[in-house]
Amino acid sequence: MKFSVATNFEADLLPALDGFPVAELFGKLPADSVGGGRASFMLAPLTKARFRAHVQDAARRGIAFNYLLNPACMDNREFIRRGQAELECLLCFVEECGVTSVTVSLPFLLPIIKKRYPRLKVRVGVYARVDCVAKAKFWEDLGADCITLESIAVNRDFAVLRSIREAVGLELQLIANSNCLIFCPLSGQHMVNLSHASQQGHATGGFMIDYCALKCSALKLADPSHYLRSEFIRPEDLKAYTDLGFSSFKILERGAPTAVLAARVRAYAEGYFEGNLLDLIQPYGYKKSSTKGGGLLDVRRFAKFFFRPMAVRQTGLFRLKRLAEKRGLVAELDWDPVYIDNRLLDGFLDGIREIDCRTSDCSRCGYCENWTRRAVRVDEGYRREMLQLYQNAFDDMYSGTLWGMAGRRGE
User: Fold this and answer.
1) Residue 30 carries which DSSP code?
2) Backbone dihedral angles phi then psi of residue 237, each to the nearest 5 degrees
3) Maximum distance among all Cα pairs of the chain, rounded to whole angstroms
4) 84: how many CB neighbours lie within 10 A of its CB?
5) Which H helix or E strand runs over 339?
6) Are 145 and 174 a contacting pair, CB within 8 Å?
7) Which CA distances in Å does 54 have to 15, 68, 250, 280, 291?
8) Helix axes of 81-97 and 109-116: crossing angle, nearest 10 degrees
């Protein structure tokens, strides 16, 4: 079993991973010409010199590095001379730094890299949405070295996992600790939004209101069974996947502090965790005691990415910021408003394996809802307060108030 672990580029991360089966780190510059799977404002600042030093430090410890060239959309830049020149420049840089592999999600990029930079292995990212045999075989035939399967569609579908594993011979990787909505209807928009929000030269200049993350968080608070109707793999359940032939697992999150990342790697390496499962699977809500090195927003970084008075009304944006801080989306928390007792989920996966979630109506099934009553606790006062704040925020967006557009049409 081996892990591909997100890096926050902090100096204390690599020593914290010593002794665990970490085969590679993955990450990228906060912004580049291609863009990637996280918005720049979600990641801590990083110079090219510090990036190079981190990659080389990892190599000295026997850990490879995977650079993410994984946007869901490049705005068609890949088809013009300037875009190609920028791609060449970026690939030259990462190869010179000692990067051993890159992750792509756009089919057009894979043969380009294979032809021009044959020393780089090419991995297929989750944004390629590989969730069936046909897609896996397409990428294998194209020359991919590894595919990260689309976790929201396949992590709970053992028949599909088995079929894909038997159909292709290349390395397959699973994301262990994501907590998206099952078959998330927001994912397509979210991938594109995030991709452009880390793309240098894009018209938005890195500005993005993360509507999808806000909506996801609100839906979970409104119906906490969404926390369990998800794609996470508990440390205790890794064996169910290794028995199918999967041995490579990806551990998130790039904006997480070192203490959080190290605790996640330890839990999955040991196959056991006692505490709040959200500490392993949630990409926000980090505790104040562990926030050193995280990608959380301070005042200067907020101003850099969000002070755009010509793009959005700043009063409405500051209300969104306060909501996001209170929810732990862009700031640390000092308590657990939502608590999932991991020990009370022993046996949860056994029942899931017998359910075809793709064809089931969750409201009729009730399986995850029953387990939610057993293992999930939500502070009711916090829940009511946050749901009202979310409703106010969405009303501002839908009406146009956030942009000063309310009253212009339909009233």
Assistant:
1) S
2) -105, 5
3) 65
4) 13
5) strand 338-340
6) no
7) 12, 15, 19, 24, 20
8) 60
